[in-house]
Each structure stands twice: as structure tokens, then as C-alpha cells.
Amino acid sequence: MTRPLVNDLYDRHRAVLPDWLALYYDEPIEITHGEGRHVWDAAGNRYLDFFGGILTTMTAHALPEVTKAVSEQAGRIIHSSTLYLNRPMVELAERIAALSGIPDARVFFTTSGTEANDTALMLATAHRGSNQILAMRNSYHGRSFSTVSVTGNRGWSPTGLSPLQTLYVHGGVRNRGPYAGLTDERFIEACVADLEDLLGHTRTPAALIAEPVQGVGGFTAPPNGLYAAFREVLDRHGILWISDEVQTGWGRTGEHFWGWQAHGKNGPPDMLTFAKGIGNGMSIGGVVARADIMNCLDASSISTFGGSPITMAAGLANLSYLLEHDLQGNARRVGGLLIERLRAIGAGVDAVREVRGRGLMIGIELIKPSTGQAAPETASAVLEAAREGGLLIGKGGGHNTSVLRIAPPLSLTVAEAEEGAAILEQALRGA
User: Fold this and answer.
1) Average per-residue pLDDT for the chain
2) Could you read off the pLDDT of 6-23 as tens digits, one per residue?
3) Could you tell me the CA-to-CA distances from 305 to 99, 275, 325 in Å, in that order?
4) Helices (H), ranges, 101-202
5) Number of Cβ within a 10 Å radius of residue 299
6) What are the strands, taking DSSP E only, across 205-335?
7) What is the dihedral of CA 83, 89, 90, 91, to 10 degrees?
8) Residue burial 41-59, b: 16+ Cβ < 10 Å; e: rest
């Protein structure tokens, strides 16, 4: 593979951007264009994209339907703000409200998942009159001051200062911690008992915020039904449930359209947040909430860029494509084949502790075979080897960054899944 031509651009990057702005690879690559499930770098190398702009390119690169919608809207008007009626925003809000499962839903658009979660936390604390928040260990909810303060992952929490008092609950990670050896039923019972005990020591929190599948945390998930069981406790105390669907929404898990639906026995969440995939690369985030929660604010507000005509046009076209082509079903079918293929590979590699996932949201956890400890160096080596082989993947995980994150566009074909698995096998065996 041709070595990337990055020296000048990398030097310029380092000169004007923050030191903490992370870059993948020992020799970072500049991605210049994409098509379908592939992207190209500035040196002309072609890669199969198994990370999709951090789960953001949800349907495909350069999807003609989205490109056409953006181009046509740009030719009319790009921006106006929420101070004026906005037909694409109303139309997309109507569709998302109907799909959310939340009764009497209202939708507020933002520009990112961080801003969406920040808004949900503001709504919850205002509605409940409490600044206490329940969050899950190993979680990630964004990089703003409030969302960092409810992120249960040290690697992504740069400050201990906070506008909120956050209490962390067991349950987001199934295979580590004091309950890892229990059956699913006993695991849920133990986590519920932990929640009950925690609430006995504190003032009543405003909300629980939780990812149905933890993204940055390494694609970890509790057994189905945990948050439904939590909901029974939360409802007794009047505590709201915020489902962070920034990475799990829009059918990526294959099983469900929203991650919360794996825990839906006791109804939908009070709020859900979304972003990433709905824009297929355009900057869209948002909150869906019951009307009484969304309308609880006693001051006026707007969003300068949230719900802009051009991003809403992209979101409408992308959502239509997703539904019309049953990409949730494709994620279930192709993702199921891919995860079984990767599990077969992992069974023959001592450094693979576990292959886990749902749909096209798959994690490969790596360890040092001699000690069983997390192996971030191995994860970095596999990331590099995969790129050399023509495959882009991500990494994450708590207890050091030792999980490979695999999340291709939902239009991935069986042939592409096989191709990516073969490259990963070679990278894993050589690490």
C-alpha cells in the first residue's frame, strides 16, 4: 500500500489544533473522498470503511439521494435559524416523533450528540428540580461540561469539576465487575438491588442517562430487560429515563430500530437523544421528549444551527432511504453473519477475549494472553495492520482502550463483510 502523503498537513495540524485532538495511526491519513462502503486517502489508497466516520456515515458514502437533497436545498436556502418556520425541520420532526415510540412527543434539533445530551440533562434537571443524575459506569455522553460530568469513562473525562452531582450505577458492562459471573437473570436482580441501595443514600435524582449499548465503552451491553427493570424503580421515585441513542439509533443493532426497545417491557423512555447516523455525515442531533418535559422551560430559547434547512433535507432523504431499503434488516442479516465469522476467527487467536455485538455494532476485546489484562498496545497494532490491509476500524473500551470497534455503513454487503473479516483475521493473527 502506498504510504500516506501527510507530513506537511500533519505538521500544519499540529501547529494550529489542540494537542488533545486525537488522530488515528502512526502516520495519520487524509481521507479525500468516498463511495458506498469505501473511502480513499490522499495517496490514492482505497479502504473498506468499517467505522463510518464514528458510526456517522450510516447508509453509504456519497449516497446519491442525500447528495441530491443537499444540493437542491443549497440552491434554495442554506440557513435561516429556528426563528422562522422551517418546512424540512417540521417534516423530519414529525417522522422522528412518530418513530420514537414516545407518546405526545416533541423534538428539538441540535448539531451534535453532545449538544443533544446536554439539552436532555437541562430538561431533566429543570423538570425535576434536581441536579443529581444517575449514569452508568463505562459510559460516554459527549465532550461538553455537563456531558463530561456524566461520562463514566476516565479516558474521556478530562475534568472532575461538574455542574451536576453524578452517581454511577452497575449494569452497563456484562462481562466485568462484581456481577460478571451471574446468570442474566441474577445479573439484572443484582443491578436493580444496587440501584435501590444507591437511592437510599441520596436525594432524589432527576434522571438516569444510559446508552443501550455503550459505544466508546467498547460496544458493551447489559442483558435485554435491564433498563425495563430499572424503570420500575425509577418510576416509584419519579426519576426520568434518558436513552442515549446517539450510536444505537436508526436500526444499527439490527434487532430493533432503537436500542431502548430491547428494554421496552415497561414502555419507552421519557426522553431519547439522537445524532450521528441520521445525517449520514451532516451535523444533526436532537432530543425527543414527552411534551410536558420538553415544554417545562420557563425561558425562551432558539437554535442558531440546529434544524437548519440543509441538514434537515439531508436527514429526510437519509431516513427515507434507510426505511425504504430496510437497512435495519440488512444490519441484522449481514451483521449476524459478520459477528459469527469474527467469533470463529477469535476462537483461534489467544489475544481475543470476546467478540460481542448486535447488528452492525461489533466489538472485539483484546487481552494479553499471559495475564488476561487489557491490551491497548495490541489493539493499536491491529488497527495499524488493518489499515495496511485496506480496512478502517475504530477502537475504544474502558479499562484501557483495548476493544476494536466495528460499525460499517448499514448497506454493507455480504461480500464486503467477508472481505473485511479476512483482513481482520490477518491483522489479528499478525499482532
Assistant:
1) 96
2) 679 999 999 999 999 999
3) 23, 14, 30
4) 113-128, 145-148, 184-199
5) 5
6) 207-210, 240-244, 271-274, 285-290
7) 160
8) beeebebbbbbbbbbbbbb
Q: What span, in angstroms and rounded, lies between the C-alpha atoms of 234 and 212?
A: 16
Strands 132-136, 285-290: pairing kind: unpaired
Distance of CA 347 to the CA centre of its chain: 27
Residue 201 is predicted with a pLDDT of 92
Bridge partners of 280?
282
C-alpha 411: how far from chain center: 18
Cα separation of 280 and 317, whole Å? 10
Determine the angle formed by the axes of helices 414-430 and 327-346, rounding to 10 degrees.
30
What is the model's pLDDT at position 403?
97
Reduced to 3 states (helix: H, G, I; strand: E, B; else coil), residue 203 is coil
Q: If you search the block for the grid coordinates 435501590, which residue do you land on?
A: 196
Beta strands across the sheet bearing 394-396: 352-358, 361-366, 403-406, 394-396
* Listed residue (141, 220, 134, 131) closest to 175, CA to CA: 220
**Cβ contact 59:318 at 8 Å:** yes
Q: What torsion do the CA atoms of 243, 244, 247, 252 make, to the nearest 10 degrees? A: 10
**Distance from C-alpha of 315 to C-alpha of 291, rounded to nearest angstrom:** 23
Using alpha carbons only, give the angle 396, 210, 207 rounded to the nearest 5 degrees.
Answer: 145
Write out residues in the chain with pLDDT < 50, as ranges.
none
Distance CA 176, CA 222 (A): 11
